[in-house]
Amino acid sequence: MAKELKDLTKRATDYSRWYNELVVKADLAESADVRGCMVIKPYGYAIWERMQQNLDARFKKTGVQNAYFPMLIPKSFLSKEADHVEGFAKECAVVTHYRLKADHENGGVVVDPEAKLEEELIIRPTSETTIWNTYRKWIHSWRDLPLCCNQWCNVMRWEMRTRLFLRTAEFLWQEGHTAHATREEAEERARQMLDVYADFAREVMAMPVIRGVKSETERFAGALDTYTIEAMMQDGKALQSGTSHFLGQNFGKAFNVQFINKENEPEFAWATSWGVSTRLMGALIMTHSDDNGLVLPPHLAPIQVVIIPISKGDKDGGALDERLQALTAELEAKGIRVKYDNADNKRPGFKFADYELKGVPVRLVMGARDLENGTVELMRRDTLEKTTLPLEGIADHVEALLEEIQTALYTKAENRLKERIYTCNDYEEFKSKVKDGGFFLCPWDGTPETEARIKEETQATIRCVPFGYSQEDLGCDMVSGKPATCRVIMARSY
Length: 494
Known about the structure:
Layout: H1 15-25, E1 29-31, E2 38-40, H2 42-61, E3 65-66, E4 72-74, H3 75-78, H4 82-88, E5 93-97, E6 100-102, E7 109-111, E8 116-123, H5 128-138, E9 147-156, E10 170-180, H6 183-203, E11 210-213, E12 225-232, E13 238-248, H7 250-254, E14 258-260, E15 266-268, E16 270-277, H8 279-288, E17 305-310, H9 314-333, E18 338-340, H10 348-357, E19 362-367, H11 368-373, E20 375-380, E21 385-390, H12 394-419, E22 421-423, H13 427-434, E23 439-444, H14 448-458, E24 461-466, E25 486-491
Parallel strand pairs: 3-9, 17-18, 17-19, 22-23
Antiparallel strand pairs: 1-2, 4-8, 5-8, 6-7, 9-10, 10-16, 11-12, 11-24, 12-13, 13-16, 14-15, 19-20, 20-21, 23-25, 24-25
């Protein structure tokens, strides 16, 4: 078993510090010179690209098309939907001028006071307003519906407390926006996209999630319902990993998006929006990684297999290289993403530690003796188990092993989730246990007052009213003592 990296804080010592160090040391991202922003490094972006590509294909299978809308939104647009503007007002970055000029007295440049915009522009925190202003021009008849667009872009929300991937002022995401002729069709689309996210989390990220609907307090600004997938990180905290919103006719009415229905009568369009962001990178890290660094599910890993030769000179180097080049080609022919690292500027031991840190699922090592014996050393990153195997048939073995690792990672995470979902009806017990993490299934009276008290006293929030859990025999709210209206998942969160 590989030794734990001495310069990486252990999770048990300081989970938050472990996460921050790992993001940087694994070459995923670093803080930018602009406060609250980040630089996503090539290796981190390669993982995000794989997420992007897989999700994009899933969206398109449901009839969604990609488009692009402006980054700058006129301030007046945000004023048209009251709940929406109230929800985002404190996070908006505002553009007030369109020109700089030279500062001849002090050097450098200053804002030209003569270049003040007639109307301030908002850097998009989300794009409902600008997209629905555009949809007004596109939608006239029921024959124009449904209209299903998605865009991959950056957004800006002026966060004061930031953490790489989890919460930054600028982040990357996708936002889908759909318009429909009926309420039923819009609600079905909102639920459908939640299922797309949940399936992606399970099948690609190997991350189990709980599906549910947000409380009124926690729902998206301007939505009638917000559906969510909630994931549990290794420290027991919740991470909202994707949301889908049923917006009713709020934006249709705000932007006068009317169409002539099948009865030849005017009607406002029904709307949804849905999105995931680079926050998924944080979820990926905190679901699977360990004290040795990243652990990546094979379906997401940019490099699924790394091959490292151990050569002692030209005597065996040529034959070793020839055999490993052939192995590389054999694996690539199966669609496996392989890196053959025969660079001579780093020692094998450094390479071993580096690829462990970066979470490459399978490592193959071959030296002169292996070549002579027709064997290869294999290490799987999830368990750090090493085995020596015959070279013959190794490609088939690796192909099967990658799927085995993918399944094993999901099973491990799923078991951890199941073990840390607690039924709780006693508030004192809840206050005592919630600080140690976990999801708590609790009866709630449905009032924002009770919800606010729990948040103030415990720093826990209602994550969702979960699907798939009984809502019968609810009993009483553990805080107020009033009859409960539903059973909810409560947890501390990121």
